[in-house]
Amino acid sequence: SDSTIGETLQAAQPKRAPMVRIVSLGLLLLLGLIKAVPIPEPIDVACEEEGVCPVSGDALMQTKMRRSALQAQINVGEPHVDRQTSRQDGEGVAPSLVADSNIETRLGSGAAAVAAGAEQTGPAAGGTPRETIEEFCDITGIANMHGLNANATSAELLNERLLNDVSTELSDNNVDQMAKDIFTFYICTRWVPDDVLWKVAEQELSAEILKSVVDKSEAPRQAISELYQNFKFVPLLCSKNLKVFKETSPIDHTYFRKFKEEVSDLSKFLGSATTGHVWPRLKQADELFCGSDQMNSPGCDAKLQAGEMMNRMTSWMGDWGTKFDTNQDGWSVMEQAFRNFSDPKAWTQDGASELASWKQKLPYHSFLSKPAGADSMHSPKSSQRFLVCFGMRVASALHRRPRGDHIITDQNNVGCHGWWDADQASAMLGRIVDLWKPPTCQLADMTYHMKKQILDMFMRMNENLFDALPSMLQDEEMEGSTSGEPQYPEPYSVAQLAVNGKTYFDGMRVAAAQDVEYRYKSCILSCTLKIPKGTGGTLKVNSSLFVTWDVDPEGSQERATEANAITIVHSEYGKGSSGILDSMADAGLNMFGAFKDLFGSLWGGRQTNLAAMMSGSIAKWVVCPVANDTDLADLDSQLGTEDAAFQEHVKQAYSKWTGYKKPVPGAQCEVDDVVPQSEFPGCKVCDITELHTDHPERFTMDNGQNDEFICPVIPPLPTAEQLKVFQEKTGQCLLRMSHEQERQFQWHYTGHYPARKQNNKQENSPKVEYQLVKLLEVDSSGQAPHVSFGRSCTVEEKRAHPRFCGASVLEKPWPSIGEMAEAVSGMLAGSLGMPAGAVTNLISNYQELVAATNENSSAKAVATLVGEKAWDQLMGLGRLAHRTTSAASAALLGGMAGDDDRHARLEGQLFGKGHGGEFMHSMSYQKAIGKSDTTSTSRERYRRYAVTCPCHDFDPAMELALRWRWSQTALRAAKEALKYNPSLLDKPEPSVGVRGEARLFHKMNSQDGNDTWYTYGAAIDSGLPEPAVTSPVQCQWTGWFGNNCEPTSGCEIVGSWPSRECVGKAPPSLWRVVGDAALAGEVGGNPTTQQAPDTVRSLKVTYHCGTKASFSNSVGTGPRTSVSLKSCMQAGVRANAAMKAAQPWKLYFPEEVIVVAVFGAADTAGCYVRSAGAKEKLCNGGLISDSTLDKHLGPAQKTSSDADYHGMRAGAGFVDGIIKEVVMRPEDLLQVNNLLF
Predict the structure, then answer these.
(1) In Å, how far are 458, 460, 600, 611, 1028 from 608, measured between CA atoms?
(2) Which residues, at least 6 apart from 1203, have a Cβ–Cβ distance to it below 8 Å?
(3) C-beta of residue 260 within 8 angstroms of C-beta of residue 251
(4) pLDDT beyond 50 at 778
(5) Is the dihedral of CA 409, 415, 421, 422 positive or negative?
(6) Residue 91 — very low, low, confident or very high, per pLDDT cuts 50/70/90?
(7) Residue 36 clears pLDDT 90, i.e. is over it
(8) Does the N terminus or the C terminus of the chain have fewer Cβ atoms within 10 A?
(9) Among 995, 993, 998, which residue's Cα sits nearest to residue 1180?
(10) 1209-1232 pLDDT, tens per residue?
(11) For 180-184, what is the mean pLDDT?
(12) Mean per-residue pLDDT, 18-39
């Protein structure tokens, strides 16, 4: 025909386009499940041979006492095929299926038993591998090749044995045949609930797989009619599979000719189907309910419901009431039609013969189960009854509904198109033949890709083995001392010992409180080991105290110690540390270096040599020698070619037509009871996968015990892809277990050991003590994905103390992105390997902040602009190593004790990195959800999911910058103040003031025009007590020329000639010159270029110490206490160490002692001028000159070799980028001031 497919379909069905029907079919199948039901005929010889039979009522009664055995034998995993026996059935030698007569053994057979056993055909007519070797191979030659003595065995038995062996290899171990077996299809027609399908529908109702609006206990037949009418239960009769490469034609020995003949035969049947007796009854079954070709028409349904309502409203009138048709009336009529269809007496002889013909062509009873039904827009009309489905029909193992009396199996409904009427279905079969005929190259192309996919799988099997060998070698090394099971650390059980009122915990860090001496166990000279005061060590607690000292030349010796010889210190004390961001710059991790090296030296080179040899080669199997009298031309006509056919099966459903998109695992997150909102406010659950016990089948260990395990029903996404799904969740953090928590709660990751059990049958529930983390970067460039992430706090701490979990509160933000970038890049200059994700988060978050504080649109645009310089500054973070930068800063700015350790610790608190699989496991949780009970052998299921919680304000890069800068500033201020006020820390809440200063100098008769400039510095108020008030002194000029200002004990000359004055001396200043250049720089007292004097700023730092629980959630406040800051910090170091040693897996301790530095600033600047000309420069803004302002300055600060000092200005107001407070550990302040012990 010259008509296109679209024109033909349009002409055949003018009221509904084919694409609409495909959409309708897609939606109908989308949530539906096709089941194939073997016909429940009496068990006979043929049934026994096939080994798959319906369960009769008698059979169920006979096996009632063996019910548990029946359940245990049903296999819901992959089909089981017994390949040890075989039979000749016309298709060559096929693996025989388990065919024992007892029902339990039959149920153990795979789903393939139904298809393969029921679809056997008569003898093949040449061209098959079996016939080829029978006709053309030299049997004696085969016997010799197989090492058999032809004379020792009867020729008939030997021939049969050899033919079976070779033909089985050719058919069962044939990649080419595997690829070609995919080219098959079958058809189904919508049927009516006959006797078989009626019983199946009843079992679906009984198992509550399907639910009817009709009470099934009162009107079970009407309930089934309702299921049929609303397409909840769609009965089907299906054909056998028509395979392209199943059997060759005796005419030309080709597969396709035979295939075409079979398709043509089925197509003719469809073409004549509408002219007989069966077709009208099938259509009538649909048309009875509404009197039209659409039995679920919304108008019809509304009319019948209205009639039912009117009947109820007039029921009080008795016979005078209305008698409108109702839904129940329609279902009753349908029920009667179904009975008549199944009643042999209701058919004429010709009709009964035709019905039998339908069942012979379509012998397999199936059904489509769709609990939600189908709406009228997407459901077929009465004449649209046929499906054409590509692929093998059977999709699972055999199973049975609870209390069901039929054995069923899942039927593949992917690759179907329809619904077609009979003529259209017949035409579609013809089109398939036309499309697949060899000249179109469709089969050649698809076979090629399919075979390639199969061979890729073989290659992956080999690669997976070699990838697993290092870990398997490691396991084998352990088998000599263990049972071979992986030995994991036990949950923490921390030993402790109380001595003199103090509790010591195993594993604590301690330091020598005094010089300690030990004697070596065996020596001749130099037998004394000296441990200097302050040396670090690790405590071992048994019945007494032992220490493994860091400097012990004998290694990990545990040496006895007295409690008074040691002092408890923080956990990082004395350990060499590097920032976690340093190691992020490394290319990757090597977890099994020793075993990988061993593997590489033993087998890696060998496998490389083998690969080099095999690459580009061709492997051949010599099947048999050709018989001497063979006509080679005849032989060649039945052989194939060397052409390598590959085919990749791309599984497609109906998304092209329905628009349905399968959810990406983890993409959809919802509020769920597994994370109660009362404990996890705002948190949601993101499902990842579902795991079943004993999937795909149970496993028995060598000791005879079943090994309990679970496996995903649907394999999860690759780790990198799954993590990127979570990375894209902006403003969300993931709930994650630390390594210590995984150990404590026995949630072990075994992904590094592919030969081990991967998933234990256990629950793993989220806990509020787990930490919230933000994914920053997923790197999949290496052999295994790696991640970097930001660490926030635990859910528990966030609820109890949001003050210490939220973002640092900026007292004075930077005015623009550019100024922020310049400042922050300097703060983070030592953080090697800062994740790019952290930097982009920092920029976007600060853009939002600046935009929110600028109401003017033009000002907002300028402030939020990210210029090239800002990008360069921020994206260039980490170009200098942590250790290199910190060493340089120490040399230039005067580093403090413990700087490196504190920076590394802060990095570790805010950032993490690790293997992608380990990270994925640590953020995954698991819950048992019971059995589905959809089959009598349903397995226990577990839900694997992640938990996300809101953390929009968490910006780890900004936090690192701010906490590091302002904790250093607070420490420097305290250290500088202690120079002038040694008792500063004896106060409960000491305060320190720092101000920047600009000092004006003027050069007389300057020739270059630059006659004024400033020098800069800073002063500190260390909290010294105010001086005592003295009586006023009368000052006067004395001497011959009036040049003396007396009395000199209380008077002094101020100003310069001729404006000098003799005035009383001001009381001693509380301010002192700051010697720390870095501290001076924080208030503008150390600029690199000349700045206006009003750019200097001020700073006030108040220190608070106490437990976290003692602080309120009001930022900038501290607990009321009378305990000195020093005592609180010293006790806190010991208490914190004890808590963390006792519970190493805990991240949050309400009783942990912290130090909070709260920042403030002076409201008003100060100035002092020594000449009238300096007032405009120093006292602008209405300031009044204060002659006491520079009393703390010495001659060095007021002297210049070629210029005169004219006064100064003292700073006020906050520094850009300052925060309200910063939290520190008590050991920080003690360590920088040498007060730790």
Answers:
(1) 17, 16, 10, 5, 89
(2) 1001, 1002, 1003, 1004, 1013
(3) no
(4) yes
(5) negative
(6) very low
(7) no
(8) N
(9) 998
(10) 999 999 999 999 999 999 999 999
(11) 90
(12) 49
Structure tokens at 528: 């004394």
Q: Please, are residues 537 and 511 in contact by the beta-carbon 8 Å criterion?
A: yes
Q: Is 606 exposed, middle or buried (0-12, 13-18, 19+ CB in 10 A)?
A: exposed
Packing angle, helices 327-342 and 278-287, rounded to 10? 160
- Residue bearing tokens 């820390």: 985
pLDDT tens digits, one per residue of 440-483: 888 878 877 787 788 778 777 877 887 787 777 777 766 654 45
Question: 696: cis peptide before it, omega within 30°?
Answer: yes
Instruction: For residue range 396-438, list pLDDT tens digits in order.
Output: 778 777 777 788 888 888 888 888 999 999 999 999 998 888 8
799-806: which pairs have CB atoms within 8 A and are 24 or more residues apart? 799/681, 799/768, 800/1109, 800/1148, 800/1150, 801/1108, 801/1109, 801/1111, 801/1113, 801/1150, 802/1113, 803/1111, 803/1112, 803/1113, 803/1114, 803/1115, 804/1108, 804/1111, 804/1154, 804/1223, 806/953
Helix H segments across 1179-1225? 1195-1198
Helix (H, G, I), strand (E, B) or coil at 421: coil
For residue 991, the one-letter residue type is S
203, containing H or E segment: helix 195-206
Mean residue pLDDT of the chain comes to: 77
* Mean pLDDT of the 653-658 span: 39
- Identify residue 1100 by its one-letter amino acid code: K
E strand or H helix that includes residue 857: helix 857-864
Pair 977, 984: CB distance under 8 Å: yes
For 662, phi then psi, to 5°, come to -65, 130
Task: Name the more confident of 319 and 226.
Answer: 226
DSSP state of 371: T
What does the block give as tokens for 1087? Answer: 């600029």
Residue 121 has pLDDT above 80, yes or no: no
Residue 1079 to residue 902: CA distance in whole angstroms: 18
CB 1169 within 8 A of CB 1179: yes
In angstroms, the Cα distances linking 360 to 52, 186, 240 are 18, 14, 10
Which carries the bigger pLDDT value, residue 46 or residue 1158? 1158
Three-state DSSP class for residue 585: coil
Q: Kindly calculate the radius of gyration of the chain based on its CA atoms and give it in whole angstroms.
A: 44
Neighbouring residues of 618: CB distance < 8 A, sequence distance ≥ 6: none
Length of the chain, in residues: 1237
What are the φ and ψ backbone dihedral angles of 934, each rounded to 5 degrees?
-85, -15
CB 41, CB 359: distance < 8 Å: no
How would you class 365 by CB atoms within 10 Å of its CB: exposed for 0-12, middle for 13-18, buried for 19 or more? buried
Task: Please tell me the predicted confidence (pLDDT) of residue 81.
Answer: 29
**Token pair belonging to 1046:** 């007396």
pLDDT digits (tens, 9 = 90+) for 490-501: 899 999 999 999
Residue owning tokens 């100003």: 1055
Residue located via tokens 């049975």? 400
pLDDT grade, residue 938 (50/70/90)?
A: confident
| Mean pLDDT score, 182-207 | 86
**Average of pLDDT values for 1084-1090?**
90
CA 839/CA 792 separation, integer angstroms: 16
The interaxial angle of helices 868-875 and 817-827, nearest 10 deg, is 20
Residue 321 has a CB neighbour count (10 Å cut-off) of: 14
Cα–Cα distances in Å, from 864 out to 817, 819, 820, 960?
Answer: 6, 11, 10, 22
The torsion of the CA quartet 359, 361, 366, 372, rounded to 10 degrees, works out to: -100
Alpha carbon distances (Å) from 205 to 197, 364, 835, 937: 12, 21, 57, 18
Query: Is the preceding peptide bond at 1032 cis, omega within 30 degrees of 0?
Result: no
Tokens read off for 853: 């504080």
Element (H, E) at 271: helix 255-272
Residue 5's nearest CA partner among 638, 446, 435 is 435
Per-residue pLDDT band at 305 (split at 50, 70, 90): low
Provide the residue type at 1124 as one letter.
Answer: S
Give Dmax over CA atoms of the chain in angstroms: 155
**Helix H or strand E encompassing 368:** strand 364-369
